[in-house]
Amino acid sequence: MRHSDVLVVGAGMAGLMAAVTAAKSGASVSVLSEGAGVISIGSGAVDFLGYVNGKKITDNPFNHLSELGEMHPYNIIGAENIKNAFASLVEISNANGYEIKMNEEGLNHTAISIAGTTKPTYICSESNNASRILKAKKILFAGVEYLKDSQPALAVKQAKQYKIFADAEINSALLKSPFGKTHRVLNCLDLARYVDKEEGFNWLKSELSKAAAGYDAVIIPPICGTINYTKHFKELQNLGFILVEAVSIPPGVGGYRLRHALINEAKKLNVKFIENCNVQRAVIENGKCKSVIALHNNIAGALETEYTADNFIIATGGIIGNGIASTPDKVYETIFNITIDSPVSVEERSDKNVFGSHLFARFGVKVNSKLQALDSKGSPLYDNVFFAGNTIAGYDFPTEKSGYGVACSTGYTAALSALASK
Amino acid sequence: MSSEHINPDKCIACTICQVHCPVAKVTPNFLGPRLIGPAYERFRFLDIAEEESLHYCANCKNCDISCPQGVSISTLNMVARCEYTEKNGGKLRDWVLSHGGFLADVFKYIPTWMKNFGMHNPATRILLDTIGISKKAPIPKFDKHFRLVYKKLKQPKLEKKIVFFPGCYVDDYDYSIGLDMIWIFNQAGYEVIVPEQFVCCGLPLVSNGFMKDAAKNAASNVSVIKEYQEKGIPIVTGCPSCALMFKKDVPEMFPEVVYDSYKGGVMDAQEFLMSCVERGELSFKEKISGKSIIYHSPCHLRAQGIGLPSIDLIEKLTGSKVQNAQAGCCGISGSYGFKKEKYQIGLEVGKELFDTIKSSNCEIVTTECGTCQAQIKHGTGQKAYHPVTVIRKLVENK
User: Fold this and answer.
1) Mind listing the pLDDT tens digit for each residue in B200-259?
2) Nearest CA to A254 among A229, A289, A218, A286?
3) Same-domain check for residues A12 and A91
4) Residue A363: inside a domain, yes or no?
5) Do B248 and A322 touch (CB under 8 A)?
6) Which residues of chain B lie closer than 8 angstroms to A275, CB-CB?
7) Cis peptide before A343 (omega within 30 of 0)
């Protein structure tokens, strides 16, 4: 049926988390999506909060929420919802074959990137947790022949600049490619898929055993499998050294594993997916959203279908995800056409420093604690519409390292609000 | 050929299409959608020689489905392939595979057994194998020509009318699906019109590089569609690939043949039937014994942006619960998996689906697409039926 208890627009972290959370409570849920959702190409590491005002957090990130200001989504939904959302994500992922965890003392994990940089993250797989090698004396940074995304010699140069690796000896090596030279340049996902198979796993095991002699720890690109990752990684940990998977540029493999787990859960819960459509507008009746109108196969001038629901969760992303549009005339949310406060001058919407904190990153819909959009007087615009993820105003995920943390926790909270308003 | 230019710069090079491409998943010989589509398109502007792995694209549209920026990647690939074929000439094999509708129409008065003997005897298969059609491929057998059967069929006189676009699979290989369609529309109170002027939708022509032939087909079909749209009669098809061709490829590749109120021209029949259910026009009173059913969603249905109406339709009309296989592409992509050098790729792509179907132990396998049905039979040994056929079987307890 084209009526659902809860209709979610968007299939990224916020949308999937909302869909699964709502469906777990027995609601009928449909997800409308344009594109497969960015999780599938990301690293799969869920950042909660790495930096506040440019300062790196070294203790429990929950201690720093108050420094973010009361308009930050974390403070709007509160610590309890964030904790429950993270616990739920870990449970869902683990139950669907991708084991991820939080630090037992409530600290950020340290992940190391394929380029040798480090970053704080809150939930990730054991393999991505590079905190485990901070005491290692001899570390090998290994790439794979013809895998151009990984340049271990460069990564070693970068890693040596960090204090945490100051006492370690770090070397680089290349594992022999199982494919030789190929027409398409290999990426991490190609190798991870190969490692899913028995012959691929044997290749990785034997190459690692050869290369790792004498090392305490080995860092490799994320290639320990996709669907068979958990099983394979456990076995590889018995090789006599600490094995770490670097987080990679897209396709980041970890994200592929995480999405697979979430989609698997959604499948068990009978969540319906309507892919490749573009939600054009909403139909409002008596102050409530009655339905949204979706354009077929994303082609201008095509037919449209109307989807009704009791409650709607909008997780369409920010400016890059097209949930928010920034034009010379105005900035607005694209389905309900909610105007977003912004400087008239386009230039003022960004920072001169390209790595600085850009105003446009904070563009989004102002919401209350239920995640309903607010009008200029601070009253909810529609009772049965809840926003999640980067469609919400007030946070700058690249500089805070808070992207999936906000997406996951607001997706979860939006679902609770939708369930409560039934 | 006046396809509107697709801007390759809409692509933000995020790699999501590479991740979801079923062909790139199984072979590193294919550059993948992002590189062969928007990235290579910039070289095409400079008239630099075509990328050698373009022929690997199966036109399954998973790149379009996964793209968050609305880039018509598959169309970029198909237009490039057609231009390449036009310059360099097409293969005889590709001509044969893509002109099935035309050939079948030429031979439609030849008895079915004779056509099948001609096509499927070992000597012909070896001959076809030498021109590049794998002798192992599950090429469907000819059946009675649907529209010849339709002509002799007596339907009840019903006030509401609907136009049915059968598509080549129903026309040439399985006329019973067409009869099941007529049955269910009659049940919903619609008399079914199958215009004689309809020709192949043109998707196999586009996929095999024959853009000019596809343009001709599009023009003839759209003029028929227009005639009925003007009378207010809806046009439907049970084939997801034909529907997608009318909805997406025709307006994108042949904008000169479409008109303002065209709106994709043809609707998915199952979606239309679902709206009949919602309007109260279609329901069955019979108690139907519960059978376990697994459903495969063809890529070309997922690409339409209408969800999976057949699941709702079967559940609503028969009360059975349908399991959605949700296991990706079957690997056949029309005629792609018939080709000698693609046959193995097709089987590897379909492996997840075959495994899912086999391990489900379901009594009934269902999917809309004819060639998906053939590939599922080939990969699992289990016959797959069109959803409307399944509904009829259950309702009539056959």
Assistant:
1) 999 999 999 999 999 999 999 999 999 999 999 999 999 999 999 999 999 999 999 999
2) A229
3) yes
4) yes
5) no
6) 65, 302-303, 305, 307
7) no
